[in-house]
């Protein structure tokens, strides 16, 4: 097993998930539930399944497409997201009268 890749993946996902809406949902469910262990196991299972799906889709894309194409698609996607976030306002601002 590649321990460096394992630790890098763990750290990256751990930091990305802090403060995520799934964490906020887990906090809300855990705080209002009489069975916090059930909330823990449910959220852990959900994260494992979504991660499994992501890895399988990534592996499938890597087998079907050349690495250069995958990198180009990712770069174009992130560029489009950045442009939309920086220059396009989704809701017009209301002016105070």
TrEMBL record:
Organism lineage string: Bacteria, Bacillati, Cyanobacteriota, Cyanophyceae, Oscillatoriophycideae
GO molecular function annotations of the record: metal ion transmembrane transporter activity
Annotated organism of origin: Oxynema aestuarii AP17
One cellular component term from this protein's GO annotations in UniProt: membrane
Highest taxon listed in the record's lineage: Bacteria
Main location: membrane
Family membership: Belongs to the GDT1 family.
Name this protein carries in UniProt: GDT1 family protein
Keywords, in A-Z order: Membrane, Transmembrane, Transmembrane helix
């Amino acid at each position: 097993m590649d321990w460096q890749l394992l630790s890098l993946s763990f750290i990256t996902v751990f930091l990305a998930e802090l403060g995520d809406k799934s964490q906020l949902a887990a906090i809300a469910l855990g705080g209002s539930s009489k069975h916090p262990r059930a909330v823990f196991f449910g959220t852990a299972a959900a994260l494992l399944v979504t991660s499994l799906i992501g890895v399988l889709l990534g592996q499938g894309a890597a087998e079907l497409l050349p690495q250069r194409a995958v990198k180009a698609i990712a770069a174009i996607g992130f560029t489009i997201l950045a442009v939309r976030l920086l220059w396009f306002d989704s809701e017009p601002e209301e002016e105070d009268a």
